[in-house]
Amino acid sequence: MKSLYLVLKEQITHFYLIRRLSFYELKSANNSNYLGIAWEFLNPLIQVLIYWFVFGYGIRARGDVELSTGELIPFLPWMITGFILYTLFYQSTIQGSKSIYTRLKMLSKMNFPLSIIPNIVIFSQLYIHIFMILLSVTIIYIFGYSINIYFIQVFYFLFSTVILSYSLALITSTLSTIIRDIHMLLNSSLRLLLYISPVLWSLEDSGRMSGSIKGLLRYNPLYYLIEGYRASFFGTGWYFIENIKLTICFWILTLFILLLGSIIHVRFRRHLIDFV
Asked: Does 71 map to a domain?
């Protein structure tokens, strides 16, 4: 618990630094591009259009998608509300996993804790995500849906996604510095999560899937976050209260990963500079 307390204290103490460096991270990553930082917003937009075309029209024409409440939603607004959260989780986790070893030479000359480095990367992704939330709200409005009181859940699920991403990045950024293959393994695993999580398909529509497999997939943390996002955007209810069992399981798993990540990070961070 001492390791967890130390890591959390470092995040709070250096929050201002995290916020400033996150914006610098976003700008410096695109210095050599003509469009600069605009690519950070264009890339997810292009991906949404590709997946919408392929899964909405290419493989088979998708009709309306049924929510857990039984309400039918057009495919594009249904897909984008789940895809933007998956993109935030994927980019935060995968970029966070290599955040330390790609900056070791720079970090060896600076005096701030290594535990804030994954958070700098995650915060840089939040700027893009806010833009994607506004885009999603616009698309939903065009399709005839309006935002209601349930939309405030977005902030809870956004916070939950950041905590889960940071917890995973804390473990993988430490281990990837020691064993670089960890990053490649994580990349493959996260791509697999896109297809076993309800980002491009609905668990309610998977009639051929057995009930036991459906029940197992519901305990996937991404299922909880994505379905919570959709409940927020489409105003179907207080998802985290109505599915309290999933909420409890999610936080038990997330806090366990955070505790484990804190122990591993604090245990090895003194030796990470040796891998320069």
From this structure: no
